[in-house]
Amino acid sequence: MSTAMIWWTIAGVAVTTVAIKAFGPVVMGGRVLPPRFAGVIVLTAPAVLAALVATSVFADGDHLAVGASTVGVGAGAIVSWRKGSPMIAVLVAAAVTALLRAVS
Predict the structure, then answer these.
(1) Are 38 and 26 in contact (CB under 8 A)?
(2) How confident is the model at residue 57 (pLDDT cuts 50, 70, 90)?
(3) Nearby residues of 68 by Cβ (< 8 Å), 6 or more positions away
(4) Helix boundaries (H) for the chain
(5) What is the mean pLDDT of residues 23-43?
(6) 29 φψ region: left (φ > 0), alpha (ψ -120 to 50), beta (else)
């Protein structure tokens, strides 16, 4: 692929992104969203965050894998579920991951 083609692709993606982001405000024009749509929008951020976490926990390059980070995130999830403290959950996840990486 030539350099010019790469830059045209980047420009095309940028224009498409701007068009997609502008579509909602242009179409809605200051109107209030119906409650059904507002509920979906509220749930979008947690869904995207969960997808990013799952991708980074289970991905090993191009393959799915279960490793130390997977076990660490699982331990953090259990602590978060049982105790509810995000700081302790992060510390437990980091400690379990570091311990498993040191052992293996």
Answers:
(1) no
(2) confident
(3) 96, 97, 100, 101, 104
(4) 3-28, 35-58, 68-82, 86-103
(5) 83
(6) left
